[in-house]
Structure formats: structure tokens, C-alpha cells
Write a structure and sequence with these properties.
Length: about 140
């Protein structure tokens, strides 16, 4: 009479679990680092798109959108006042200005407030992963 072995022993299951745990400790940090680099790159791309839209707006209107004109929303919606006559079309292709890759609004000032010495007409940047204003923020834009 032959006995058939059914299933796995507890030792076999534990060995597999230890191997999977070891592999996870090697792989997960690398995946997180990769994902964070991708968010940084996406933020840079989004900032470049905003910069291009602001440049087109400035070419038509004569200046970057101001707070009174709605800030970045003036790229999508016609502002009120004297600027409305010069505004020709949507300058940003989406329905609304997107959040940065970390889910926060892009920070926009015209005239610049944080980087006055570096930028003349405006500044737009992301607060980045920690969502805090910090010196040397790698996601600072134009």
C-alpha cells in the first residue's frame, strides 16, 4: 500500500516565507526609490507645461497672470478687467490646473515672493514630497 503525501509541511512553508521576506526587503526599497524619482520627474514635466502656458499668456496679455486675474486659473478661464480683452484662448490644455504628483496645489506667485532675486515676473513650484516650504526644494520651478 502506497501513502500519498498531501500538502506541504510547516517547515517547507516557513522556508518559503523566509525567502519571500528576504526578497521583499531587497526589492521594496528599490521600488519606492524608483517611484519617488518618477514623481520628481513628473513634477518637472508639469512645471515645464505650466511655464510654457504662462509664456503664451504673457505673449498675448503682456504679463504673467496675477493673483487678481486668478493666478494659474487665468490660463484656463478668461480673467475679468482690462486683461480680458487681450486674453485669446485657453493657454493650458486641461479643464483645470492639476495638482502636483503628491496631491498638492502648485504654488504660484506673480510677482515672485520666495525667489525674488532669481525670478523677475513669477515663480511656480511644487512643495514636493513633504508638502513643506524648505530651502533648496528640488521641485522649485520658474
Amino acid at each position: 500500500m502506497q501513502l500519498h503525501k498531501q500538502g506541504f509541511s510547516l517547515v517547507e512553508i516557513m522556508v518559503v516565507m523566509v525567502i519571500l521576506g528576504f526578497l521583499a526587503t531587497l526589492i521594496v526599497p528599490r521600488i519606492n526609490t524608483y517611484m519617488e524619482r518618477q514623481r520628481d520627474e513628473r513634477a518637472r514635466i508639469m512645471l515645464n507645461q505650466l511655464k510654457s502656458s504662462i509664456a503664451m499668456y504673457s505673449a498675448d496679455v503682456g504679463h504673467a497672470p496675477t493673483r487678481a486675474e486668478g493666478g494659474l486659473n487665468a490660463l484656463i478661464n478668461r480673467p475679468r478687467g482690462s486683461t480680458a480683452e487681450k486674453w485669446r484662448h485657453k493657454y493650458y490644455e486641461d479643464i483645470e490646473i492639476p495638482d502636483d504628483p503628491w496631491g498638492n496645489d502648485f504654488v504660484y506667485h506673480s510677482p515672485p515672493s520666495r525667489y525674488k532675486k532669481k525670478y523677475d515676473s513669477y515663480e511656480v513650484y511644487s512643495l514636493g514630497k513633504d508638502s513643506e516650504e524648505a530651502p533648496g526644494n528640488p521641485n522649485v520651478g520658474y
